[in-house]
Amino acid sequence: MPSTANNVWLHRFSLLTALATLALIAVGGLVTSHGVGMAVPDWPNSYGYNMFAFPFSKWVGGIFYEHSHRLIATVVGVLVVAQTRWLGGRAARLPLAIIGLGEVLGGLALLQWAPQWQGAGHFLSGIGLVVLLAAVVWVRNEPAERPLRQLGWVAFVAVQVQGLLGGLRVVLLKDEIGIFHAALAQLFLVLLCIIALLTSRWWHKVDGPALSSGLPMQLRWLVLVSSLLLFGQLILGATMRHQHAGLAIPDFPLAYGKVWPAMDPASVELYNQRRLESVSVNPITGFQIGLQMAHRVVAGLLLVAVAFGAWLSWHSLGLSCPVSKLALAWTGLILTQAGLGAATIWSGKAADIATAHVVVGALSLVVAGVMSILVCRQAALADETAGLEPATDRLLHSPFPAHTPVAGYK
Amino acid sequence: MKKTCLVSIAAVVAIAFSANLRAGDISGTVTLKGTPPPERDIDKSSDKNCGTPGSKPTTHHYVVGAGGELANVVVALKGITGQSKGDSAPPVVMDQKGCEYSPTIFAVQTGQKILVKNSDPTLHNVHVVPQAPGNNEKNQAQAPNGPDLTLAFPKAENFLKFQCDVHNWMFAWASVFDHPYFAVTGKDGKYTIKNVPDGKYTVQAFHRKAAPASSPASQEIEVKGGNVTADFTLEAK
């Protein structure tokens, strides 16, 4: 495997982009936890001001969280565009120029002929200018090999879709878009973390003997199924949070004092009559109670699946194997998530605890993504050892060919 | 003969006319039985322009007098439609002071204007979240001491929510009726629905917690050229 010492700055930049995205998710989590997603009615302006010129004295109440979220999102957008250009090398300049020009013209067209879409028009024009800038200025570097180059483009598209979704959720007054925005944010973080992983020295040092070829088939499937289950759990959580009805069930581990709560209309009406809300005053519904119970059940299943996977990995691969170490870390994160979930209920859905629950959920999904990549790589190495044509092999090699100096790097 | 006919006709017209004019008021008192849950504290520290330092604001889900008089109960006649005079009715004024809505519970007719004032030295957003089809969701910024916002709703709806997302504890509810026969109890628990034409009616009392829209308190009454009293007793759950 070729050395990645030449890519240390790219790796650091990718790591910075991933960390900035984690911060963005945290602040986005605070927005929803405080119920202030609509605190800034216009977009991309803020109360009529250009978002970069909104006076700090006006960042009051929920505006502070929502406006901060938009500013950090802008930073993440710029970082991702720059990363795309870096990964794509010289060859990315022309596509970026075409896309940037298209976005600027598209944005101007919306502003001219579809004033009801002016928010999207301003957004497209703005991001288009950033993309054009990335196309016309930069060093002449060689592109990364597939799949990094391709992952860079996926991130490029995803960050802009996310920006649009976030803005449209506000101007179209659609809570449902908020759920999709939250779910996509988690996947986007996983993508950026995988890019950071694939550009790391560690990835290029880890090879067959270190990973070991003795990966049980059950472990591979357990990791993949647990990862999908975890993503489903995050969607459940996002759906719950965007109901803006506070805690559908105020106690844990019981639910309204029972193992399974009554969910008939009369009982739900009684729950609503007895609860006095200070924020999130939407009445709770039987559907929301069902959502939370499903979330609790899946949490239990996840804990068992991930803990079993950690045991299986330890037992079959030993603790020195990276897969085992990650599996243990994953178990720790899921346990922490369970604790934060309980704390969210016991604290009456305190915004900081609920947001920590979102952030640890995102980190759990990142580990799930990395684990999935590792077990796929394990499978590819095992196939190679067996003399088979590994379908996943090309996906997992170093992104830079051996002995190819990369212009602009040490 | 001619004079007798004229007198008879005049008498018939007078009787018919006076029958149409016969109306009365429906009034009463709403009281609360039982002890409501404790109100929740409100934390206004996220905006120093809200509230008074040292004060400890709370929610106001139940506003109960010393004798159990319950305020903020919407009392209305059931089943009457198409009699709204909202277009010509004077506007209802809702203000934002100390980062709280005033009033928090009110009632209007369909098409009747609601003027939303901002008397606070801070930004608010006025976000209305209706549920009834035909009433559209809106979210509008309002500058400190800025111009009034004007809203109106074309469809009847109970407890249509107003909220400020900048100050996430701010809520108000408007009940929208397609007729003018409604009232909201004051702090003394009293209400009066004026000029109800003679007839038999069902009077309903709605309270967000004690008698929600899905299960209001009801009474059958009859207006016969005079005033009618209809008291309600709601129970805290």
What does this structure look like?
- The complex is a heterodimer of chains A (410) and B (237).
- Chain A is mainly alpha-helical and 410 residues long.
- Chain A folds into 2 domains: 5-205, no CATH class; 210-396, no CATH class.
- Chain A has helices at residues 8-33, 62-88, 93-113, 118-136, 148-171, 175-198, 201-205, 208-211, 217-241, 265-274, 286-317, 322-346, 351-385, 393-396.
- Residues 1-5 and 391-410 of chain A have low confidence and may be disordered.
- In chain B, 8% of the residues lie in helices and 39% in strands.
- Chain B contains 1 helix and 17 strands.
- In chain B, the strands form 4 sheets. Chain B has a 5-stranded mixed sheet, with no helix packed on it.
- Chain B is mainly beta and 237 residues long.
- Chain B has one helix at residues 2-21; strands at residues 23-33, 74-77, 92-97, 100-102, 105-109, 114-116, 124-129, 138-142, 149-151, 157-163, 171-177, 182-184, 190-197, 199-206, 217-223, 228-229, 232-235.
- Chain B is globular and about 85 Å long.
- The termini of chain B are far apart.
- Chains A and B meet through helix 2 and helix 10 of A and strand 8 of B.
